[in-house]
Design goal:
The two termini are 25 Å apart. By secondary structure, this protein is α/β, with parallel strands linked by helices. The longest helix has 21 residues. It has a single domain, classed as Aldolase class I (TIM Barrel, Alpha-Beta Barrel). Helix 2 packs across helix 4.
């Protein structure tokens, strides 16, 4: 586990708190605002940031994040620029973990062997690749391990116990449980349905468990936090940010979005 991710979950555990992980798409609504938005999210109470790498053909993302990726791509945001954003963020924040979420195509263009070291140098702590099963990482996995970059693995409601055992054996950083059968921003999350799958994950791994997909507000975050170590909020935040017409407004929206979630989570500690 990367030191920043480990420190993040250790500190939350000691405080009896939960880790709040907001997701934003790098470069949306404006590439020049992304770093400031990241800092605003931390100021509002985020513990770990998930930064989406824009991609034209996402498999797991719903309409809101698809449109955010399209807007970022139109503004020439590629993987190189995403790493520049992370490096700029690190000039002021050396503590908050950053995980990149994306797909293999941009990474293949960058270079499987070259990307992990470049990402670590920029200040990335973990990598979540939706369309790359852990056993298919190959030289990418070797390079990630050499660079000290955590490979965040997804577990779904349809994951079998046998498959889960294989995933937990190679996962690092934390495990991301996808709470819904579907794309981001879809469906209605049922908190009681999380208890059994999260328990199954914990039986096979000591890694923290984060839950995402379908979490839209503070009440839902609190319900999820009853079962998980971390809560991921994405589509609702991305949609709110899409309305910003300036960097200042985007930062205001970001802080105002996560602050009540943070307060609600802290009140349950």
């Amino acid at each position: 586990m990367s030191q920043r991710i480990q420190n993040c979950f250790t500190a939350a555990g000691k405080a009896g708190s939960k880790v709040l992980i907001p997701f934003i798409t790098a470069g949306d609504p404006d590439p020049d605002w992304t770093v400031a938005i990241m800092h605003a999210l931390v100021a509002g109470g985020a513990n770990l940031l998930e930064l989406g790498v824009p991609f034209s053909d996402p498999a797991a993302d719903g309409p809101v994040i698809q449109l955010a990726s399209e807007r970022a791509i139109e503004k020439q945001v590629d993987l190189h620029r995403v790493l520049e954003m992370v490096a700029a963020f690190r000039r002021q924040d050396q503590t908050t973990p950053v995980v990149l979420m994306g797909y293999m195509n941009p990474l293949e263009r960058f270079g499987r062997r070259q990307f992990p070291a470049a990402a670590k140098q920029a200040g990335v702590d973990g990598l979540l690749l939706v369309d790359c099963p852990p056993e298919e990482r190959g030289v990418l996995g070797e390079a990630m391990k050499a660079a000290g970059l955590d490979g965040i693995c997804l577990v779904a409601p349809t994951t079998t116990r046998t498959r889960l055992a294989g995933i937990t054996a190679v996962a690092s950083g934390f495990i991301y449980y996808v709470s819904l059968k579907g794309i981001t921003g879809s469906g209605q999350l049922s908190s009681p349905e999380l208890e059994q799958p999260v328990r199954q994950i914990r039986a096979l791994s000591d890694l923290p468990v984060a839950v995402g997909f379908g979490i839209k507000n503070a009440d839902m975050a609190v319900a999820v936090a009853a079962h998980a170590d971390a809560v991921v909020i994405g589509s609702a935040l991305v949609e709110a940010l899409s309305l910003a017409d300036s960097e200042a407004k985007a930062c205001e929206i970001a802080t105002a979005f996560v602050a009540p979630v943070r307060k609600a989570l802290d009140n349950t500690a």
